[in-house]
């Protein structure tokens, strides 16, 4: 996929969609008023269109979608942003997309776990309650009377459900169920999701199959899906030298690795610098061109008392990567106070320009002197940051390069 257009039924939703995809490192253009004609997305670009259809009649909504769909080139991916509480013309607008793309199938993932919206057994819940038992049922413009997502699509296209029992088994199991459903004629597949990890697994599965998938969701699934489908982000690779082996750091790495294309080099316990360097030089030419993160890490079995020598070996390997990979590296993340101090010492860095606190106690800045002057950098302690701390740092460095 080289370009993408996301059709949204209101302005605030289009803003949410835009920022979620921007957070994935995508180039996003939000169009508030498409008018009769709009400039379709260029290669590598995502266009987010505010179709402004939620307040209109079903017939008007269908007409607007049809007009916009005719302007989207055949090779450009399409998605539909829906409301987190299922308000709007879900079936009408999704049907227009599927009619325009007869070979495509829609994957509906209404969950937005970070805002209290989850889907279980096909039922969409708001803070643990059925939608019809919340204030959404009393919305004066669009009262919601049902939480059962497949029911919104009945009678138009064949619809099936990927239940939580399969979602929790991971991407391979999801992909198997998805392909089976599509093979049986389903054009719309609704999926349960309770956590951000569930959404990442669904996106991984959807991105792995050859069929054209139209993501239909409030934003998180589309962003995760596009993060995998776009072949290149264009901002380079972040080099991360992670000296800390704390449990918090491990969880942050797990979060990042589920969301980023990465390569990882582990320094073995007791390994000499000469041995590590020889392995390293054989390793890094194989790093994929579209990788977003290159991790240098010590093995968890590194012996107590060898922290300083480990930090110096990691710093030397990091320097080797920066020299050899040159402009492919867009920034450096240093985690662990000793690791950061040794790297700056070895590279002749004495000054940084602070730019932004990415999260509490995670500082983003720029190297002012030494061998790598001008390079963006992030420093953080091993026990610092939220679960997405490393991921946010990588994204910040990519944006600074742009």
Task: Give a written overview of the molecule.
There is one protein chain. This protein is an alpha/beta fold and 402 residues long. It has two domains: 4-229, Putative sugar-binding, N-terminal domain (Rossmann fold, 3-Layer(aba) Sandwich), CATH 3.40.50.10840; 237-401, Four-carbon acid sugar kinase, nucleotide binding domain (Molybdenum Cofactor Biosythetic Enzyme, Chain A), CATH 3.40.980.20. Helix content is 35%, strand content 23%. The protein is built from twelve helices and 18 strands. The chain has helices at 11-23, 58-69, 90-100, 164-167, 171-183, 196-208, 220-229, 247-257, 273-283, 307-325, 337-346, 389-401; strands spanning 4-8, 27-31, 45-50, 77-81, 105-108, 117-120, 123-126, 129-130, 159-162, 188-191, 213-217, 237-242, 262-267, 293-298, 329-335, 352-359, 362-367, 376-380. The strands form three sheets. The chain has an eight-stranded parallel sheet, sandwiched between helices. A seven-stranded mixed sheet has the order 13-14-12-15-18-17-16, sandwiched between helices. It has a three-stranded antiparallel sheet with strand order 6-7-8, with no helix packed on it. Helix 1 (11-23) crosses helix 7 (220-229) and helix 10 (307-325) packs across helix 11. The longest helix is centred in the C-terminal third of the chain and has 19 residues, at 307-325. The chain starts with a strand and ends with a helix. The mean pLDDT is 92.
């Amino acid at each position: 996929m080289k370009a993408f257009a996301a059709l949204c039924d209101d302005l605030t939703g289009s803003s949410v969609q835009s920022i979620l995809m921007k957070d994935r490192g995508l180039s996003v253009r939000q169009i508030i008023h498409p008018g009769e004609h709009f400039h379709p997305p260029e290669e590598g670009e995502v266009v987010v269109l505010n179709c402004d259809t939620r307040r209109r009649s079903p017939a008007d909504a269908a007409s607007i979608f049809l007009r916009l769909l005719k302007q989207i080139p055949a090779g450009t991916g399409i998605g539909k942003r829906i409301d987190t509480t299922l308000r709007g013309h879900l079936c009408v607008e999704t049907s227009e997309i599927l009619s325009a793309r007869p070979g495509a199938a829609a994957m509906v993932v209404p969950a937005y776990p970070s805002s209290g919206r989850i889907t279980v057994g096909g039922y969409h819940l708001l803070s643990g309650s059925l939608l019809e038992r919340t204030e959404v049922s009393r919305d004066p413009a669009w009262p919601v009377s049902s939480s059962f997502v497949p029911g919104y699509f009945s009678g138009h296209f064949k619809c099936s459900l990927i239940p939580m029992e399969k979602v929790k088994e991971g991407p391979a199991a999801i992909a198997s169920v998805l392909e089976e459903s599509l093979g049986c004629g389903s054009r719309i597949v609704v999926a349960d999701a309770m956590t951000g990890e569930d959404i990442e697994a669904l996106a991984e599965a959807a991105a792995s199959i050859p069929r054209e998938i139209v993501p239909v969701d409030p934003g998180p699934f589309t962003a995760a899906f596009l993060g995998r489908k776009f072949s290149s982000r264009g901002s380079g690779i972040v080099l991360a030298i992670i000296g800390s082996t704390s449990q918090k750091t491990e969880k942050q790495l797990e979060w990042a690795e589920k969301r980023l294309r990465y390569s990882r080099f582990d320094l073995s316990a007791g390994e000499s610098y000469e041995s590590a360097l020889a392995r390293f030089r054989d390793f890094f030419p194989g790093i994929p061109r579209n990788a977003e993160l290159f991790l240098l890490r010590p093995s968890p079995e590194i012996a107590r008392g060898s922290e300083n020598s480990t930090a110096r070996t990691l710093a030397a390997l990091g320097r080797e990567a920066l020299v050899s990979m040159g402009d492919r590296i867009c920034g450096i993340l240093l985690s662990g106070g000793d690791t950061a101090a040794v790297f700056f010492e070895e590279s002749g860095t004495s000054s940084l320009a602070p730019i932004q606190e990415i999260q509490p106690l995670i500082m983003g800045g720029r190297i002012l002197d030494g061998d790598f002057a001008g390079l963006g950098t992030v420093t953080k302690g091993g026990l610092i940051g939220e679960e997405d701390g490393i991921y946010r740092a990588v994204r910040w460095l990519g944006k600074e390069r742009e």
